[in-house]
Amino acid sequence: MPPSATKPGRTFVVNLTISVAVTVCVLLITQNIFFEFLPLKRVEQSLIDLRFQQRGAVTSLHDTSKIVIIEISQESFKSLPEPWPWPKNYYARLVRNLQRAGAKAIGFDIIFSSVDTVFYRGDEDFRLAMKDAQNVVLAGKLETEQNEYNRHEQHENYGNIFIDSSSNVGLVNIRTDNDGVLRRYMPFVYDNTNRKRMPTFSMSILNAALHQSSSYTADIGEHTFRYITKEIPRYDDISFLINYYGPSGTFRKIKFADVVDDKEFRTLEEDSLGVDINTFDDTTSIPSFDGTTNEPAGYLYNGTFTNKIVLVGSTMPEDKDLFPVPLGQGRQEGDNQMYGVEIHANVIQNILNNDFIYRQPYWITVLVVFGLSLFTFVFTAGLKAIRTRYGALIEILGIAIICSELFIIYWASIKLFRDNNYLVDMTSPFVAVIVCYVGSTVYNYITERRQKILIKSMFSRYVSPAVVDELVAHPEKLQLGGERKELTVFFSDIEKFTNMAEKMVPEHLVAILNEYLSAMTNIILVNDGTLDKYQGDAIVAFWGAPIPQSDHALRACRATVAMQDTLKDLRERWRRENKPSLNVRIGISTGEMIVGNMGGTDRFDYTVIGDMVNLGARLEGANKQYRTNVMVSEGTYQHVKQHVIVRELDMLVVAGKTKPVRVYELISMMNDQISDQRTAFLDYYTCGVKLYRERRWDDAIKCFERGLKLFPEDYPTQMYIERSHMYRSAPPPDEWNGVFILLTK
Questions:
Q1: Any idea what the CATH number is for the domain that residue 557 is in?
Q2: I need a surface site. Which of 197, 468, 534, 563 has the fewest CB within 10 A?
Q3: Does the N-terminal peptide bond of residue 660 adopt cis geometry, omega within 30 degrees of 0?
């Protein structure tokens, strides 16, 4: 037997150790425990974006959201009389109109950094409007960053001239990831100068809408930010992930000019047309959908702002309030830009609807990575250790399993995100699977080096050097232990060798036998056969192992025909040298048999055993009864019938068996030249056998006799004529199927 496989206990320890090591390494490079591996971090970030893109936009939000955006855009510039920057009384009018329309909270995503230089009462008017409303939130900005929470060198008004101690303030410092994409949002920042926590802009607007103190900030829990009764899952220590509902344009937008255009305000369009439009408080009725009632057209009456959170911000690209976000329009590269006011709308809607993204806990990531590492390494290492002729398929299967694992990770991650807002770590499992596959490949290579040496020493005496090299190069094609395979086995024996040996000088006998065995063995090896053994003058060989061969039966037949041709040449030369002529009988059988190393612990041979092997031996001996040279089984014939010329000999039950086997005499390969006389003879013979099976004895005899005239010495033809005469006189029973029982080996 070959060297024993690694002990199961040792194998388990090796697999477990490698899996733990891979898990630790993967977590170190993907989880930023001691350092940040930027390439993998960016891969994970891009995979977050991919999940948003796969989920797509929430199209219904445009009409159902409690948030409305008033955009400062080019259209409003064309409608309003005063040039940019607008006088502050425009904003005062906006606040008052929104109050009249029932807005719950108003947030200005604008940094008012300078006073009006033309309209001196505009600033005061804006202050009075905000004071009366009590639900206006102003944007401020911390100018100098110290770290994630701490800021310093900060003025009290945070860069906004309208901010004072009584103002509702929200900070608009937005922090993008290292690839420039905005995925996270901080619920508060720490103003180190004033030694206090400050709510960010979206949180301050929620404070105003939910009647909380303007300075109220979320508390930090173990895994969440606690805001009033809501638990916002943390992505990291300072932020949570924004659950974007769609690309830019998902939330409803209304032009700034349309909200300030009331009965007391004249737009440029109204001046040019000479008519009042008054989009805000127009009382003109429009038909309802059912046509039974009329509804006012103006925003004051149609409920657009009733009980809504209103965000005011710029949608002008030149204001540079644009940020890359995970979800784009999908029309072209780079269309994932979103205005800051829309980002705040997404954050506020997340918190109002409890639409949070939950990140997979770290301990689950550890378990998943370890489980995948263990499974992948054990499975792929075991798969690579399989010795089969379908080595390429094993490799393909291994790659397919790895690809399936990666696809399952991808599919599960997308589905959990789409259906449950659950963010699974994808990079760590991906890396674990790939590293373990590569690791198993390296491990398999190292462990097989010893085996290659063993293979070379073991098989150099069985097969050709080319086959040995193939086995060394591809040890996966070899099964060192016993294996059930379909093979073709070959038995040959020299007719009357014992009698010849008794009459010859031993030295002459050995010389001629060695010449014969050398020539026959060379033919076997040239045709990629495996030499099993010599048994005196007999040769045992097989095809299909250790190198898998789909055409093993054809190779055996081709070698057999080549042997017969070589023997003809040898006999001519031996006759000239006054040496005895050798006649060789050959039996070939194809079917399932056991192939492998048979023997003791220290001494063993690579050989075949099984019923099909025994059949091959019996067919070699059966040639005596039919006075033929090569007999092949039905199994062999079915594999090679398109490539050989044969004639059916009989339905034979060999000694020791009960099931009949159809046997054939191998005459030549299909592309070999045979005489017209031989062709005609085979036609007569085949016709005779067919008629014989049909119990048409007289007709069968006629066909056989015509063939016998061409080859008078052909014994199978004589045998069938004799049987036909016998059955004509004494017909066989009705259940007769033409089977002949061979009683001798």
A1: 3.30.70.1230
A2: 534
A3: no
Residue 218 and residue 186 in one domain? yes
Question: Do 217 and 73 share a domain, yes or no?
Answer: yes
Contact (CB, 8 A) for 66 and 305: no
**Contact by Cβ (8 Å): 740, 661:** no
Say if residues 537 and 498 touch (Cβ distance below 8 Å). Answer: no
Rg value, the chain, Cα: 46
Bond preceding residue 475 cis, omega within 30 of 0 = no
Domain co-membership, 257 together with 283: yes
Task: Tell me whether residue 167 is exposed, middle or buried, using C-beta atoms within 10 angstroms of its C-beta: 0 to 12, 13 to 18, 19 or more.
Answer: buried
**Secondary structure letter of residue 300 according to DSSP:** T
Looking at the structure, do residues 535 and 573 belong to the same domain, yes or no? yes
Residue 193 is classified by DSSP as T
At how many degrees (to 10) do helices 552-576 and 506-526 cross?
150
Query: Could you tell me the two tokens for 246?
Result: 């769609």
**Same domain for 596 and 528:** yes
pLDDT for res 151? 43
Output the pLDDT for position 507: 85
Element (H, E) at 208: helix 201-209
d(CA 685, CA 700): 9
- The 3-state DSSP class for residue 198 equals strand
Q: What is the pLDDT of residues 480-519, one digit of tens each?
A: 567 889 999 999 999 988 888 788 888 888 888 999 999 9
In this structure, is residue 450 part of a structural domain?
yes
Where in the sequence is the domain holding 520, given as residue range(s)? 481-674
- Per DSSP, the three-state class of 383 is helix
CA angle 325, 328, 330 (to 5 degrees): 160
Residue 171's DSSP bridge partners are 140, 200
Residue 460: band (very low, low, confident or very high) from pLDDT cuts 50, 70, 90 = low
CB-based contact 645:667 (threshold 8 Å): yes
Residue 48, domain member (yes or no): no
Could you say which DSSP state residue 476 is in?
A: G
- Based on the fold, state whether residues 513 and 438 are members of the same structural domain: no
Per-residue pLDDT reduced to its tens digit, 662-675: 999 999 999 998 89
The span from the CA of 412 to the CA of 372, in Å, is 14
Residue 329 reports pLDDT greater than 70: yes
Tell me: pLDDT of 271 over 60: yes
Q: In this structure, are residues 76 and 257 in contact, taking their beta carbons and an 8 Å threshold?
A: yes
How many beta carbons lie within 10 A of that of residue 587, not counting itself? 26
| pTM, entire model | 0.61
Mark whether 335 and 369 lie in a shared domain.
no
Mean predicted confidence (pLDDT) in 454-458 = 61
Mean pLDDT across the chain, nearest whole number? Answer: 86
Q: Which residue has the tokens 């039950």?
A: 653
- Please report whether residue 301 resides in a domain: yes
What tens digit of pLDDT does each residue of 537-594 get?
A: 899 999 998 888 999 999 999 999 999 999 999 999 988 888 888 899 999 999 999 9
Confirm whether 682 is domain-assigned: no
Which of 405, 439, 455 terminates a domain? The answer is 455
Domain stop point among 438, 455, 472: 455
Residues 661, 587: contact at Cβ < 8 Å? no
The contacts of residue 377 (CB under 8 Å, 6+ apart) are: 15, 18, 19, 22, 436, 439, 440, 443
| Cβ atoms 372, 432 nearer than 8 A | yes
Cβ-based burial of 328 (10 A; exposed 0-12, middle 13-18, buried ≥19) = buried
User: What pLDDT score does 149 carry?
Assistant: 47
Q: Are 541 and 612 part of one and the same domain? A: yes
For residue 231, the SS3 value is strand
Neighbours of 124 (CB within 10 A): 14
Number of domains in the chain: 3
